[in-house]
Amino acid sequence: MAMTQAQTHSLWREIISFGMPLIVGLLVATVLRIVAYQPFTIPSSSMSPGLLTGDYILVSKFAYGWSAASLPFGSPEGTERLMASTSERGDVVVFRLPRDPSQVWIKRVIGLPGDTVQMRDGQLLINGSKVPHTALGPAFDLDEPTRPVEAFEEQLGGGRAYITYDGGPNLAGDNTAPIHVPAGHYLMMGDNRDNSLDGRWGPETGVGFLPASHIVGRAERIAWSWKPGASLVKPWTWLNLRGDRLMKPIK
After folding, report:
1. Which of 21, 100, 203, 219 would be 208's cystine partner, CB 3.0–4.6 Å?
2. Which CATH superfamily is 7-249 part of?
């Protein structure tokens, strides 16, 4: 039996009353994701031990202002930042890979525009001065428990300290020529120094120099962290969390 006009109107009112809050909620979430904070999942161990595979992090979009890189599918080529502010040495930054902006990577800011950066026997030098680092002794890579490493506390000044991993002497990336960072760019490195393709390598294989326009935002906090084997597509693993990492600040 066909519905009357009144029944049709009533059905549409119910659909709208049910769907409108959902639509508004999605719009608000999208705006917040673009303007304020965007979540990302850590896919590799290049920033271990500070960030582990499975960490779900919150990235501040307003920390450095906005560019097309801030948009979910934006292309940063040739764009300027709105209300731009500069990244600081030691910031952990999410960015679009210069050679392929569809890829989103995460590394630490080591070299600022105008800096000269060099690795010498595994020791980081900035503008000719050795960056203080304190040996913490042998450890195992938290993401690769069978891989032995040496842990160091590296100090960039201003109270910024974090732990790096060294996989051994004379490995690729342990010794570089002096690298001069051009204006408007940054040099990025992973904390897991011997397991990171970064600014020590050219843009063909690593990051090269990172243009400021390619920065998505600053990584600020680990919202939660899944243990190995957990996945969004496996609901029965959603509560398989690393409890000690919930809402942990990123150093």
Report:
1. 203
2. Umud Fragment, subunit A (2.10.109.10)
